[in-house]
Amino acid sequence: MTATNDSDENRHRPEGLGLSTKFVLFISLVIIAVCSGLSLYFIRQQSDSMARALTGTGSLLVKNLAHNSRYGLVAKDLVLLEQLMKGVMDVDESVYVVFTGPDGKRLAEKSKSNVYPDPAIARSLIRSNANDVTITSFTADHGRRREHFYDFAVTIRRGNDIKSPFFSFESEESHDDPSTARLQPRIYGIVQVGLTGERMNRALDTLIGNVMIITIMVILAGIGAAMLLTRRITTPLKNLVSVARRIAGGDLTASVEPTTRDEVGQLTLVFSQMTEALRERDAQVKQAYQDLEQLNQSLEQRVLQRTSELQAANEKLKELDHLKSTFVSVVSHELRTPMTSIKGYIENLLDGLAGELTDKQTRSLERVKHNIDRLTRMINELLDLSKIEAGRLELHLAPIDIVDLVEDVVENHRATARQKSILLRAALHAPLPMVRGDTDKLHRVLINLVHNAIKFTPEGGEILVEVGTRGDDFVQVTVIDSGNGIPPDELDKIFDKFYWSKSAPVEARGAGLGLPIAKNLVELHGGVMWVESTVGKGSRFSFTIPVARLFSHESDSES
Known about the structure:
Distance between the termini: 68 Å
Strand order of the largest sheet: 2-1-5-4-3
Helix content: 55-70%
Structural class: alpha+beta
Strand content: 15-25%
């Protein structure tokens, strides 16, 4: 019992992650991705803003210094340059100020921590034609650590007056005398100002730390909210699953009430209604089972009673069927003798043995003879059918030349066909093997098919008896007529006993036994018979007979 319970629990236990875990993970990943992306974007924007601010500060300082130091560089006034450098060094980010002459030698320099730029920067500016501020970043030792510095350099050239970006009151301006311009060098000098990025980096690190703290707090708050929301959604679902398991186990008394008005609450309400409907249906089913059990008990008694009645009726039907077959056989056999006698007397009268007959008497006797032949044929058919059904019909099997049999039947019926202007001919596809069969029975089958074809083919029509092989083991005989054909709904009934086609004229109808007897005779030989017909074009009655060697092989194997 414990093993069964464990297997049930394993079957009910969900595989993989639950819905709440998946939901929390999804929401957490979304919150982390969004917050991280926004934080990185904000930090990038602030970093770019700080870098632009530092670059702007350095550009303003070097441009203003270049404007104010133009005269000092020309006159090599070191006192003025020293004052200007002191003013720039008062800026917190300033690290050094360097003035370089047109020959590449430094005229004045000042540094807070003995950090200076590479002289190659000034020499490259002297050789170039750059007029704007050139910014170069480099790393140097500052105390016990390496810091990142930015060098802002501008070239002061003749004819290129760099205006101060600040509003200033100048007592005088130097105007180059054209006569002396030729004597002055083209470049007055290079002004370089160095700023440190340490302060910007510290501010950026502080910003990154604050942003990370805020981001983590937002992520944790979002995850907590997602967990609360998930619990609010999944708790009713878990209760619903628990009740569903109890109901699946057969406990229809289990129920659950909705705790919310959202979609989950609506689902719970519908589930409760379904559970109530199941309880009502279960009660109805139990009542139906009780009624069915009572009915089954009474039905068994009725079935036994009806079975005994059916058995008695079946025995009676068998007895009646046997009596019918016996009656038909006896009556048919007894009728054959008087019918033969009547037919003999009529033939004697027609031959003139009883005196000369008038034309009217002759016609009447011929009609009587025709009806007697028809009645005799019906009696013979009834006798043959009773023998076939009783299993008393014997076949005298022997090798038969099917060509001779077909030609004999066709030749004997040509006169009858000629009376209706019908062309009757045979088509024999040689070479044809010998068949094994009863000559009289196969002769009767062919006579029946040819006779029916003549009877149902209108005047001027055509009948073809075609013989050929069907594979290596059978010979097929087909009687093709150009009559009115058989409707499709009658094709499966044409071989039934006592059946007449609705399209057949009344005078052409017989006992309805010719085709059933022919089909049974063919099947007794081991062949099959079928019909194909098209209304308005005619019919094709076909049957097969095994070739003689099949029987010889069987007899050899049996011996």
